Amino acid sequence: MNIAIVGAGSIGVATAHALAQAGHEVTVYERHGTAAEEASFGHAGWLGPSLLQPWSVPGLSTAERSPSLPGRQALPRLGPGNLAAQLRWLWQWRQAGRQLRKGNVPTAAMAALEALTQRSQQFQQSLWRQWEFDPEYVAGSLVLLGSEAEHEQLKPALDALAEAGTRCEALDAAQTRLREPALGEETTLAGALYFPQAGAANGRLATLMQRQAAQSAGARFETQRLVQRLQPGGAGRTARLQLLGEDPPRSHDAIVVCAGAEAANLLTPLGLRPPMIALHGYGVSAPLREQGYAPATPSWTGVSR
User: Fold this and answer.
1) Can you give the pTM of this predicted structure?
2) pLDDT reading at 208 higher than 50
3) Among positive and negative, which fits the CA dihedral 255, 256, 257, 259?
C-alpha cells in the first residue's frame, strides 16, 4: 500500500519504520525541518510504567498537580485553543479521577494501558538492540512519596501493575536516600516506589536514530510540509491530503495521523472528535558544579509538589 503519515514525532517515525519494514510505500509529512521538533523534543524520556506517569490515569495526581486552565501558574496547564473543548476534557478527566478514588480498584482501562506500555517498551528495546542504537538509556525509576496518604492514593495503580507483572519495590525514607543520594536533606519524604524495569532515554535522539532506520527500510520523509486538510478514502475513493502551497492534493491508499494534539484540527472537519488536548508542562536543564550532585537514579519524580 501507498501510505501517508502526518507527523514525524516519535509515534510517526516508529509507525513509518514498522510499515516500511512490512513492505509498504511510506511517505512522512512533517511541518518542521526535521523529526521530533515538538512534543518528542523535550519530554522527560521516562519509559514506563505508564500508570505512574502523572497524566496517564485520572485520579492518580493530587489536586495541586491537576491540569489547570491557561495562566501564569507553574503547573501543568491546558494550552491555547477551543476553551469549551478544553473545559469539557478537564471535567471528564476529573470525573474519571473521582470514580477511580471512590472505587479504589484498578479499572480495565488501567490494565490495558499497562499491558500496552510493556509491549511497547519490549519492542522498543529489541529494536535498539537490533539496530545497535544507543539512545542514552539508563534503567530504573523512582516515584517519591511525600506521605503515606500518597502511597494509598496509588493503590489502584499498584494493583494493576502487579496484575500486569510489573515489578515494584516499596522503599522507606532511609532506603530511598541510600538509592538516591542527590535528595536534599530538607526534602519531606515518606518513602518511594522503585521500578527496576522502567528507565529513561534521550527521546529525541532515539527518534532521530529510528528515522535513519526507517529511511533505510524505504520510508521517505518530506519536511517543511504543512498538511492543511484530509479527504478520507474508502468505498472506491482514494484518500487525499492537501499541502500548504501545493495543488492538487496528493493521493494515498491510506493516511495515518500522528500529529499529537494537532490531529484534532485535521480530524474534526471529518466529523471525528478525538478526546485530546494540548497539555503543557515545564522542564529545567541546568549545569552541575559537581557530578556527585547529579541524581543516581535516571528518572525520578514526585506524586505531590
Assistant:
1) 0.83
2) yes
3) negative
